[in-house]
């Protein structure tokens, strides 16, 4: 029985040696007057966990449907394992593991019945695929006789991932797999993805959660059908163009309005229980700016204001890029 190490060999049998398992070039898609995807390009390397990050309506699900041959692009091209998504749809479907955003298994079948059904669709069996899915399936196997519809959210996601893996796919496509799942189950699910990536399996996953994005090798920030940036998570954060500060105090709304009126303000947004403030003085000492901001806020009546410089993260850069003007046409 072959183990996870067969991923590289099977990919190489179709793709050019050294070619990425997934290549997207200039993909565009419209629904009437709505632009769902606008000149989207990226690639996913072997053994890479690549994240598509963005809000609902950003085009992520439309892209997944194109890559899984469920939808035709209007322009551009995409290759999965060296196969064209338009010409080679049947070959692609046999070799891709796909987990859509909505739970799409059969709720009246048991856990084991769902797995056996999906294995049979791909001409294999649960026994043949067991060693690959064991790290995932092993966590829900004690409930193999339970109806899928009666599982918790986290257990449903693990069953869906097992069904996507049971036929030993050469690439895994996951569309917001942890939406609506509790924090512990989300973390366990991403631990499983790390293990699969380490086995050599390339993974494309979409998520609206920035903490999940930080676990990817690379991420693409998507907004309104466009890719705003592609890079490693730490490098995305480093693209933030201004000085960034954390601001805390009792009257967050009042401080937010005051900071937005500061003459050197570039951005000011709520982030959890604090505010993130962007300042245009990129060449000035950050501690000196923090001291000036404290004085500014206290002069406005916010006597408990606490300000300190911080390193920007993915979400800070995303917010900055969303507010940036679109590049003009050449």
Structural summary, described in words:
With about 325 residues, this protein is α/β, with parallel strands linked by helices. It folds into two domains: about 5-235, 3-Layer(aba) Sandwich (Rossmann fold); about 240-310, Alpha-Beta Plaits, CATH 3.30.70. The chain has twelve helices and 14 strands. The protein has helices spanning about 5-10, 60-65, 90-95, 110-120, 125-135, 155-165, 185-200, 210-215, 235-240, 250-260, 285-300, 315-325, and strands spanning about 20-30, 35-45, 50-55, 75-80, 85, 95-100, 170-175, 205, 220-225, 225-230, 245-250, 265-270, 275-280, 305-310. The strands form three sheets. It has a six-stranded mixed β-sheet, with helices on both faces. It has a four-stranded antiparallel β-sheet with strand order 2-1-4-5, covered by helices on one side. Helix 4 runs parallel beside helix 6 (about 155-165) and helix 5 packs antiparallel against helix 6. The chain is elongated and about 70 Å long. The termini are far apart. Residues about 1-15 and about 325-330 have low confidence and may be disordered.
């Amino acid at each position: 029985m072959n183990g996870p190490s067969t991923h590289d060999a099977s990919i190489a049998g179709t793709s050019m040696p050294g070619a990425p398992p997934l290549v997207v070039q200039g993909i565009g898609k419209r629904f009437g007057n709505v632009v769902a995807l606008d000149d989207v390009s990226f690639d996913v390397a072997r053994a890479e966990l690549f994240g598509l990050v963005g809000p609902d309506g950003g085009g992520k699900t439309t892209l997944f449907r194109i890559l899984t041959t469920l939808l035709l692009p209007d322009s551009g091209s995409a290759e999965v394992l060296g196969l064209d998504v338009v010409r080679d749809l049947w070959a692609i479907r046999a070799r891709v593991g796909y987990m859509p955003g909505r739970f799409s298994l059969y709720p009246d079948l048991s856990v084991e019945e769902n797995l056996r059904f999906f294995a049979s669709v791909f001409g294999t069996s649960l026994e043949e695929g067991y060693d690959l899915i064991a790290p995932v399936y092993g966590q829900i196997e004690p409930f193999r006789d339970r109806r899928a519809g009666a599982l918790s959210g986290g257990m449903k996601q693990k069953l869906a991932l097992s069904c996507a893996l049971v036929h030993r796919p050469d690439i895994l496509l996951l569309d917001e797999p942890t939406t609506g799942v509790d924090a512990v189950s989300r973390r366990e699910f991403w631990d499983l993805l790390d293990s699969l990536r380490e086995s050599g399996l390339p993974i494309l996953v979409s998520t609206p959660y920035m903490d999940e994005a930080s676990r990817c090798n690379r991420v693409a920030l998507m907004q309104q059908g466009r890719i705003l940036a592609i890079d490693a998570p730490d490098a995305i954060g480093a693209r933030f163009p201004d000085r960034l500060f954390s601001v805390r105090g009792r009257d967050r709304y009042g401080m937010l309005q005051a900071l937005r009126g500061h003459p050197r303000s570039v951005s000011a947004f709520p982030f959890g229980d604090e505010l993130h403030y962007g300042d245009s003085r990129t060449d000035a000492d950050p501690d000196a700016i923090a001291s000036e901001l404290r004085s500014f806020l206290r002069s406005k009546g916010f006597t408990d204001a606490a300000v300190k410089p911080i390193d920007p993260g993915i979400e800070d850069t995303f917010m900055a890029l969303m507010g940036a003007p679109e590049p003009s046409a050449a």
